[in-house]
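Service request form, structural biology core

Requester: graduate student, group of Dr. S.
Request type: structure prediction, single chain
Budget code: on file
Notes: please return the result as structure tokens.

Sequence provided:
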Amino acid sequence: SLLEWVHSFNHIHENIRWADLSDGKELWTILQDIDGNYFRGSLPEPEVGPQGDWLRKWQNLKHVDRQISTYYRDVCNGQDGIAHGHVPDLKAVAAESSVRDLERLIMIVIRASMAGPASNQAMAQRLMGLGREKAMVIAQALRNMEEPAYADSEPTSRDASEYQSEPESVGQHKANGTKEGGVTYEDPLLEREEQLLQAQSTIEKLQASHVAAQRQLEQLRQDRERLQESFDAYRAEIDSKGGKHGGDDEFRKLQRQAESDRAYIDELEGHMQSSRSTVESYERQIDRFKAEYEVTQKLRDDIQMLQADNEELHQKLRANENLKKKIQSLQEQEKANVALREELRAANDRLSELERLKQVQAGLEKEIIEKKGLIRNQEYQITELTTTRKHAEYDAKVLAQKLAAARERHDRDHEALEELRLKMQEMKA
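Core staff response, request fulfilled:
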């Protein structure tokens, strides 16, 4: 399914293999298709290929992973946390073309694309284009990325009928996931679409069951009419023959059978009424979901416009900062050039000294380049350490909030479950 999702992009060659994705270039192109305004520029190693040096490929993959992380956190306002067992090993991807870790990395890309305000609708349609079954598999994998894998609790039957509604089963699964893991999937549109599909499927099942019950009820009514006719004919025959003892037994037997048939018909009518009420309830629920979806989509559009304006302002600020840095660098470079000119004028009559100074200058420039490289590496390490610390603090805060929310949801789910049990007992009674 994941490789089919990759193939769904126009620029991806149809014969691409897992190993061809290990250099990060195809994934970077996909990210640019998802949000070209954010994922700009090129990779650190744009010339490396799938068979190239794994260290250079690793630099590309790290760049892709960092950009996705900041995009999901800053643009999508998502909680940048992935469940244990779903974090890709970028070294394994670069060195060994690990399919398992490539799948995890692609799932991170899909998660960001589904949460992105500029790409949510297009990516949802792209997923559904793979087929409903595959789309549901990927959606479940997205939830598993943010929910620890726990054993599901036993499902609670809704009533004594032979089927259980699918949305209720999904709701119970989410309640269990909230109770045990404390995390739910953060894309409400995808959840609404899934609930709509499941509710529609349940309505179709209920309608089919309702039609079958009507046919069975009609058949029983016809049988009852035939039995009533036979009963009337037999009673007339008994009356005409004087009402023998054996006839009384047969009469009582037919009477008991008729009463049993009436009770069974009444029971079927009750089930049919319950089924009709359930269908109407799900139809109202679908209408409510559609209204909420339209409101949510309008809010997404408004947020997307605000984020575009905000991004434009940030880009202007970054351009101003870069311009200031360039001016400062040019001023410092001009000062250094003035000093060098003075030295060159003082050494104009001493050619040998000039050559020595040139050699010294070349050595200094080389040392400066090396020092600059060392400084950049140290600054990069400091930035990574700072980012890691901020992520850890942020994750701790998020986990605390999730724990509190999970406790509240647990209490609400427990109360709701008790109410459902009482209703079931009343219905059975």
